[in-house]
């Protein structure tokens, strides 16, 4: 079961690293999303700049990739590390959802599935 969670965390981590790089480099589409948020009457302002969100997502993505590798190599003993990485990523992605939109929504679903798999208890073998 931890291998399924490792694959889900690895996929979400790779997406977050890519989004982090896109945020740091200031991709045009992301800049348009930020302008739309800042100029919308109901939008408000972002907590951080686009580059800062890129750094946050890149760091969280790196943590997810590290936890996926740990889950693949160590197995069940690395579950806590995977859970921490998954929940931190869900928090960061939730707050950056207006900027990154659909990729963020997709990775939230993958992270929910990964945390479910990591918390699932297998019956003890007698």
**Helix percentage range:** over 70%
Contiguous helical run count: 6
Run of helices and strands: HHHHHH
**What is the CA–CA distance across the termini?**
19 Å
Q: Which sheet architecture does the biggest sheet show?
A: none
The number of E-state strands comes to 0
Any idea what the shape is?
elongated
Beta-strand residue percentage:
under 5%
Poorly predicted runs: none
* Overall pLDDT level: 86
Number of structural domains:
1
The value of Rg in angstroms is 16 Å
Structural class: mainly alpha
Descriptive account of the structure:
The chain is mainly alpha-helical. It has one domain (2-119). The chain has 6 helices and no strands. It is elongated and about 45 Å long. The two termini are 19 Å apart. The model has no long low-confidence stretch (mean pLDDT 86).
What is this structure, in a nutshell?
The protein is mainly alpha-helical and 126 residues long. The chain has helices at 2-25, 28-39, 50-74, 79-95, 97-100, 102-119. It has one domain (2-119).
